[in-house]
Design brief:
single chain, alpha/beta, ABC transporter transmembrane region fold, Rossmann fold, six-stranded mixed beta sheet, 18 helices, 10 strands, about 10% strand
Length: about 600
């Protein structure tokens, strides 16, 4: 896909937000045009000064004429002042609002992407792409309002005035400007590929830094500081090389622009001298010509920089534009209704699934029924498909074939929000927000009263350790909950599930991070939580699933055994019996 097409998509997104403020934009453009015309009129007024001074008239007449021109100059300056102040105030009003809308748009679209999307992207890099997208709009709008639009108006005025003085001067200026603008545009496109490479290298450095910071403990524990440092140095050196190429191209283009400007200045002054010699120009015209030539240099010098800056901003915004135009892998179908859950029956019918196209399936033609209020367990060797089944039930991925039904309703044809509201998940490694304990627990049901949060905490045996914090429930838990132990995080997650009171409960290694004492503390809470709920337990610790109504043993994405603990442990040659013997006494033997 070409950058030109991606740039159009970025501009289309920006323009859709700008049009929300179209009347403010219209007023701003009026003030901007007024300010620009006024800013170019002063040179015409000053030219009249020189014209009066060069005439052989009485001084009192000349003084009167000059004072009259001062009034005109005052009017011009006042209009310019009003125009620019009004433009700045209006831009300062709607620009932050558009940037806010863009960030909100990115937030909403990002969070609708699937579990697989976030697994494949660094969180730090995604954050940077969102901020770049908004900042790119800010920079581009500033360039257009304060540079590009005034430039176009000033070019029109300069060519018109010089043509009025003499058509030869107008033709020279117009022809030179066309050549200059086309060459500058072309050179900016050549430089664009270097800007894209620089932007990609910058993102890679950010992602690499975020990855090592997230895994800082691993870097220390595996004595990998030198290894990671060298990897990071390689990334930053690549970034530096690409920035150098981009900067050098910038310098080359600046030198070429300066050469073209020297040619214009000498050429137009030479022509003006010839015209003056023929009596077609007066002395005061030289001031106007030189003032407009200098203004042309100033504006067009910035034009080259502005074009390159615009493309750099488009390059910065491109990565987020791609994400905003990437279809969501898992999305609600049109016209679907909310899941109407009554009993909590779960039914997998001939389900097959693989994580990517062309990849071998990890779930093969699996059929599984869980009756309302039944407590079932999924066990088996690592990679057998236990956690994948949980992800499919939560519709983190769409299946290749088959159906997953809850109370007879295909989860592919209900809203994801209603599906997730109907299932409470306690994961193996709960991730908490960097918010207070009260806010984290209330996330299970965000309209819950403080008293309900505290009651759920007591059931999950959280209340005791929360009371030991100086700020109690107002204690911030740190990023991802790092200020809490694994067992404390697990109990907070259980409290959150209790508060949600969902009809279906999924415990994915829910007690794996607890020591024996903590596990005993919450076992009663879990039993109360599971009453009258359809419960699916994923566990490696088989002692936690002995009381399950049925146990399903999975291997290579298929159910190879099922039954109660008593049935399976006594079954000759069963995999469950082998795993049970290993955990109970095999290690000692």
């Amino acid at each position: 896909m070409s950058m030109k097409f991606k740039a159009r998509r970025t501009i289309r997104i920006y323009w859709s937000e700008v049009m929300r403020f179209k009347w403010w934009m219209a007023l701003m453009l009026f003030l901007l045009i007024m300010a620009t015309f006024a800013s170019m009129t002063w040179a015409i007024v000053i030219r009249q000064f020189f014209d009066v001074l060069s005439q052989d008239i009485a001084k009192d007449v000349a003084v009167g004429a000059l004072i009259g021109l001062l009034y005109w100059l005052l009017l011009v300056e006042a209009l310019e002042w009003i125009g620019w102040r009004g433009t700045t105030l209006i831009a300062g009003y709607f620009q932050p609002r558009i940037m806010t809308n863009l960030v909100n748009r990115c937030f909403d679209y990002l969070h609708l992407h699937s579990h697989a999307f976030f697994s494949d992207n660094f969180s730090g890099a995604l954050v940077k792409k969102v901020t770049r997208f908004a900042r790119s709009f800010e920079d581009m709008q500033d360039k257009f309002i304060f540079d590009m639009i005034p430039l176009a108006l000033k070019i029109l005025i300069i060519v018109s005035v010089l043509t009025y003085l003499n058509w030869i001067l107008g033709l020279i200026m117009f022809s030179w400007m066309i050549i200059f603008l086309l060459l500058t545009w072309r050179m900016s496109l050549i430089k664009l590929k270097h800007d894209l490479a620089r932007s990609a290298a910058d993102t890679k450095v950010t992602a690499s830094l975020a990855d090592t910071i997230t895994n800082s403990d691993n870097v220390k524990l595996f004595a990998a500081h030198k290894f990671e440092s060298q990897r990071f140095i390689n990334d930053t050196l690549d970034w530096a090389r690409k920035m150098t190429k981009s900067n050098w191209m910038h310098t080359y283009f600046d030198g070429f622009q300066a050469f073209l400007m020297i040619l214009l200045e000498l050429g137009i002054l030479y022509s003006a001298i010839r015209l003056w010699g023929d009596g077609k120009l007066v002395l005061a015209d030289f001031f106007l010509i030189q003032a407009y030539v200098f203004e042309t240099f100033h504006q067009l010098w910035n034009f080259g920089r502005n074009i390159r800056d615009l493309y750099e901003r488009l390059a910065d915004a491109e990565e987020m534009t791609v994400i905003l135009n990437t279809p969501h892998q898992v999305k609600d179908k049109k016209g679907v209704k909310a899941l109407a859950i009554k009993d909590g029956r779960v039914d997998f019918k001939s389900v097959s699934f693989g994580y990517s196209k062309g990849e071998e399936s990890v779930i093969h033609d699996l059929s599984l029924k869980v009756r309302p209020g039944e407590k079932v367990a999924l066990i088996g060797p690592s990679g057998g498909g236990k956690s994948t089944i949980v992800k499919l039930l939560l519709r983190m991925y769409d299946i290749r074939k088959g159906q997953i039904l809850i109370d007879g309703q295909n989860i592919a044809y209900v809203t994801q929000e209603s599906l997730h509201n109907s299932i409470a998940l306690v994961p193996q490694d709960p991730i908490l927000f960097h918010r207070t304990l009260m806010e984290n627990i209330r996330y299970g049901r965000r309209d819950a009263l403080d008293e309900e949060v505290i009651a759920a905490s007591k059931m999950a045996r959280c209340h005791e350790f929360i009371g030991e914090f100086a700020k109690g429930y107002d204690t911030y838990v740190g990023e991802r909950g790092v200020k809490l132990s694994g067992g404390q995080r697990q109990r907070v997650a259980i409290a959150r599930a209790i508060l949600s009171n969902a009809k279906i409960l999924v415990l994915d290694e829910a007690t794996s991070s607890l020591d024996s004492e903590s596990e005993l503390l919450i076992q009663e809470a879990l039993e109360n939580l599971m009453k009258q709920k359809t419960t699916i337990i994923v566990a490696h610790r088989l002692s936690t699933i002995m009381s399950a109504d049925r146990i399903f043993v999975l291997k290579d994405g298929q159910i190879i055994e099922k039954g109660s603990h008593g049935d399976l442990v006594n079954k000759s040659g069963s995999l469950y019996g082998k795993l049970w013997n290993l955990q109970v006494g095999g290690y000692m033997g």
